[in-house]
């Protein structure tokens, strides 16, 4: 499947002065693990496998970080699009709580990994403000607070007056959760790739592959100028894997995002928290290292990012107005507007694990608003499975659930 994963003017690539590049594959090779896809999921899988003796090769048909990852808005949250108390009702308490704790640990692990980079990659721990969009959602927030508190997550319940004191805007109620983060995803991916390259992971850009047969030992792939024989393959092709993912229970939609001009004084944005709401589809905001505001939302039930520049510009202005509704005193203009495709699973969980019918094929598909977090926990699960180790958490996100 070849679709446009994003359109418009992206902000993150402008924050890297010299984007590292990697060669195209021009020879035959053999490896233990082939990773297909050079976005966040592929980079995290490569990092996990770089700690093993397995010969690992990563191929990207375009450029590293140039797909949907470059349009990622970089909010890292353990709370999901589906609340914990909703997951408990659907999955049972033990499995739901374990999944939330895996997501929280994944944020921790993303921070630890960032600390090993030799390249600059902005990463900051932040709390999240999750507010009730209207009075009807207050009881739902209260129920979520009780569930999070019961299971040991650090969370505060904020009444209307406390929200106004911290953030200046008024909302009926909110949760302030601790343990999240924000990141520059483009810098982070290139920090990962640089790191794994020093650990002998081979990286090839501008290299498309097609499955070309299988035997007892290898699965084979053809490229423009050669062939790859791999004992195992991980597809981390994100939203371009949608035909397969649709069979599992997923769909592709599109969303919009903006970056504003820098704000001189971010007073009344307590802790520079990540901000999001209970309404679906939801509006969300964060700040950047240089004081810009990244905001997103206006999700639509369409797969491909729109070609029409006027539509993208119009949605950008709508998002700017939403920001100004919250912070009317900030002097803001839109500096970048883009649209991007994103995937969602029917049950709110990512698809991570071994293909149900082929023991050589694995997937790391972090569908949902927490794609980077899912990819981190997925990389760790897949590293275990590929090495033949037991991983009890694989059951939660397996493909044939």
TrEMBL record:
Sorted alphabetically, the Gene Ontology cellular component annotations on this record are: cytoplasm
Tell me the domain of life: Bacteria
Q: Cite the InterPro entries for this sequence.
A: FAD-dep_OxRdtase (IPR006076), FAD/NAD-bd_sf (IPR036188)
Domain annotation FAD dependent oxidoreductase: ranges: 32-385
Which one Pfam family would you cite for this protein? DAO
- Which source organism? Jeotgalibacillus soli
- Could you identify this protein by its name? FAD dependent oxidoreductase domain-containing protein
